Input
Amino acid sequence: MGYQSTRLWLQLDPQRYGIRGKSPTLLVHQTRFDRLAVAFRYADGSIEWQEVRAGDFGDHWRPGAQIAFTPRDQKTALTSITLRVDRLASYPLLRLRLMGAGEAGIETAVLGALIGAALTLVLAGAAYNLSLAIGTRRGYLGWQGAWAATVFLWGAIWSQFGLLLLPGMAGTTAAQTSTALSALSILLATLSATSALEKGRIPAPLRATALALGIAVAAIGIPATLARGPLIESVGPPLAVAVLGNLVAVLACLIVGARRGSVEARDLLAAWSVPMAALGFTQLVDLGTSFWGGGPQILVLFASAWQTLWLSFAASRRLARMRTERDLARAAEARASRLAEHDPLTAIRNRRGFLEAADALIATAARTQASVALLLVDIDRFKAINDEHGHDAGDIVLCTIATQLAHWEGPTCVVARLGGEEFALLTIAADPTAIDFAEQVREAVAACDHRTAIGDRQVTISIGVAEGRHRIDLAKLYREADRALYAAKRGGRNQVRHADTVPMPVPVPVANEQRPAATG
Output
């Protein structure tokens, strides 16, 4: 006891580890100290000292929070290895391994490659989830991205890859930062899981318990970064209890949510299953320097990489499903809008669609200072067709004429069925003139083939035309075209009449009635 404030001496016998005759490497798995010196004593009596200190590990650091010491004299046999550690944080957490230099090199290469791959996956998941959170404004994706980013920082610092950029963090600073980040990551993961589940899916007390335990982990773990000696060892048990309790509470939330039909809960349960099992296993079993020297941390890092991949996959799948639902909803809305604005029998615009399109066309004409012509079309003697051949034949005739009229539909012309056997064409900048255009329409409709419905009988139309320019009143234009159409009908049908050629009706005066005086 008392070594935390002074020095701790340890001595190893290489022969006990079967290293005799080989080039050994000493791997130290503890970086919370002020200085660590290693003495290699050779069979010829010479001693070689190698030293690292907090903030300066030189080229002795290895992936997975390891420090490696290899004797430079590869030919002379070693008789002993002595370690001197100044201000060691905790002796029970110190792990030492002695192995052949070749074996240590292979293990270091494998561990470095695996940690690099895991960190790459976690970083990609962090960027992906954060970008999704910004794009979709979903809070739980933000928590997932923050968790993945925290795990990446923890993994980069714990593995000591961060020393490539910040060599001064070597030792206690890196270890303390890793401890704080690991506690913070558990809280962020808890926030991610609980915020992803709808409030009605899990009981409020269960959610509150999971959050409280996540906060407890952070409240215990983050201050523990500054602990040394007996204090750091006493913090371990309550922290382990808080972590296990948090895992159980979050797992319960996910199970309850999944049983109540939450898709997010099922996705999170699949994503969390491996990290939960890994984290719980590390709290119950001392893994020491297993997994190529990475110990429990490398297991947690691999599990976090799995969780990141699954969460990214699940988020992509949910967004794809939401995008599909959105596209279907938009398609349904477009269909509904089309049905609302188009005649179900002839598939051209109905009165509502005509009025909406007419407003836009009139606005275009006003900007270009063009005139607007309205053609009201009525099928001649259409009632006789229905009476003689039936309404089915009449419908076929309507569709045939509507198809012919639809050929003029375009940016400068709107075609619609206003009801019954009445159609309308609204056009701007008619070239040739509006009356000539109407004659073309009449002749094209008269040439339609209706033999499948009514035999060789010809179907003709009457057209009334009205034109306007500047501040066009569609209602007034319609009244004038309707007056011209009535004149065409009265004049013998199968003809075109322009409102300007039709005399205005003379108003008939109505005599005032003389009311008898009231009598008392």
User: Anything to note?
Assistant: The mean pLDDT is 85. The CA atoms of residues 103 and 513 lie 122 Å apart.
